[in-house]
Structures are given as C-alpha cells and as structure tokens.
Write a structure and sequence with these properties.
The chain has helices at 6-24, 31-34, 38-50, 55-62, 66-78, 100-122, 126-146; strands at residues 82-86, 94-98. With 151 residues, the chain is mostly helical. It has one domain (29-146): Orthogonal Bundle (Arc Repressor Mutant, subunit A). The protein has a two-stranded antiparallel sheet with strand order 1-2. The radius of gyration is 18 Å and the shape is globular.
C-alpha cells in the first residue's frame, strides 16, 4: 500500500503551490524580477544559486525543455542579467553565468529572501525551526526521487 493515497495527491499539490506562491510574493521588491516568466525566473535563480552552467544542465536540473530554456536564456541575455561565454579549452561549450547586473539583482533577491526567512524563523521555537529544516530536506529528497520516475 502506498504511503500517500491518490486522493492525497491533490492536497499535497495544494500545499506545494501554497509554498511556491508564498515564496514568490516578495519578488516585486526586486523590480528586475517582476516581469520574468516562470522559466526565466527558474533559470535566473538556478544560475544565481549554482554559478556557471550550460543550457543542457539547466534543462535537466529544472525539468524544462531545452528550447524553452534557450528562449529564457536569450531573454535574460537581452535584459543584461546573464552572460554566455565559450569554454577556454573547448569552444564548443558555452557557459551561462550572471552578469554584474545579474549578480547585483540576485544579491538583492537573496538579501530579501534571507530577511524573510530570518524573520519567520526567529518567531519559531528552535525545535520547530529544526523540524522545518528537516522537512525541507525531506521534500528535496522526495522531489529528487521523482526525477527517476518513469525511467
């Protein structure tokens, strides 16, 4: 028997959407991020978090088609938030990094995010903060296990 019944899937989805929509509510504080498409936002946040990457890695890691990642990276490039550079040793490889403007934007976003997390977590008893952290770790493991689903 499954730990989560099919009917529970709707409830889990609602909770996931609640988390995502709750986290993106503060994005308007960073004006450069206000008008990003969802794919642009994912690409921008991934590159900001991971550093140098390639379109193929972005596509695989965030689960979005290469063509949609390409469209998002072209848009972010036009906005001056990312740069694309050839590998010095093998020019066939093109790496995506944040531009200086992109780093500044990401740093403002991270500062805002950090202030929100600190504010919320400071109101929790330490045991609840630990449980929250453990829960996020479990969610990450769960989501990563989904990537092998259907293979």
């Amino acid at each position: 028997m499954a730990l989560v019944e099919y009917d529970d899937a709707r409830d889990i989805l609602r909770k996931v959407l609640g988390i995502v929509s709750g986290l993106v509510r503060f994005i308007p504080e960073v004006t450069e991020m206000e008008n990003m498409s969802t794919t642009e936002l994912y690409v921008f946040l991934f590159v900001g978090s991971e550093g140098r990457t390639m379109n193929s890695a972005l596509s695989k890691e965030i689960g979005i088609s290469r063509s949609n990642v390409s469209i998002a990276t072209k848009s972010l490039l036009k906005k001056g938030l990312i740069e694309m550079n050839h590998d010095e040793d093998d020019r066939r490889f093109i790496y995506i990094t944040l531009s200086q403007s992109g780093r500044d934007t990401f740093d403002r976003f991270l500062d805002t995010f950090g202030r929100i997390v600190a504010s919320v977590s400071s109101k929790l008893p330490e045991s609840d903060a630990e449980k929250l952290n453990e829960s996020f770790e479990m969610i990450v493991k769960f989501v990563k296990s989904l990537s092998s689903f259907g293979e």
